[in-house]
Amino acid sequence: MSTTQSIRITEIFYSLQGETSRVGLPTVFVRLTGCPLRCGYCDSEYAFHGGSGWTVNRILDEVQQYGTPYVCVTGGEPLAQKTCLTLLKRLCDEGYSVSLETSGALPINDVDPRVSRIVDVKTPGSGEVMKNHWPNIELLTPYDELKFVICHEADYEWAKQVLMEHQLHLRCPVLFSPVNGGVAPHELADWLLRDRLPVRYQLQLHKVLWGNIPGK
Prior knowledge:
CATH superfamily: Aldolase class I
CATH class: Alpha Beta
Strand content: 15-25%
CATH architecture: Alpha-Beta Barrel
Number of helices: 5
Number of strands: 9
Strand order of the largest sheet: 3-1-2-4-5-6-7-8-9
Order of helices and strands: EEEHEHEEEHEHEH
Shape: globular
């Protein structure tokens, strides 16, 4: 696939990584436009439409300006654009430490193995639980991560069942995060401690620092 092909980009910005095991690291975010899902808690609806066409080479030039080795390709749903695979490969070829934030609704098998795949597992509270592409689980490696966004206690119980049924924590790190403005952060922490789940608790650092400001 040619690097002259266009990728629709909503924004490229520099910030602290607010999630995953890379939390706190200065990171360039490349946000692709478009998403086939409509999760009730989505905080990037502005990326569903619009954007502008960028070549892979132009994206690489922009990323280089920030002088950090960490790049996160996000959306929307980045894998909805096939050229995303080319972008991920080129970023890896250039020596960047690359993570991909994906909804878990699309296959991840063609993603460059050098990329850390951060895969959402959509809970019932998201409104998109039927979109989970379960074959992705078999492809996960210790370099990847799974994320459950918890909306309420029923979501937590569902996520706990999925975790234990599939022994997800033996495949890769698993993150449980309270939805912003939903379940109280301390409640989720209490449930995790009570049940001694083998997962990492996660608050979105960027929301703590900057709230819902786009590009942060």
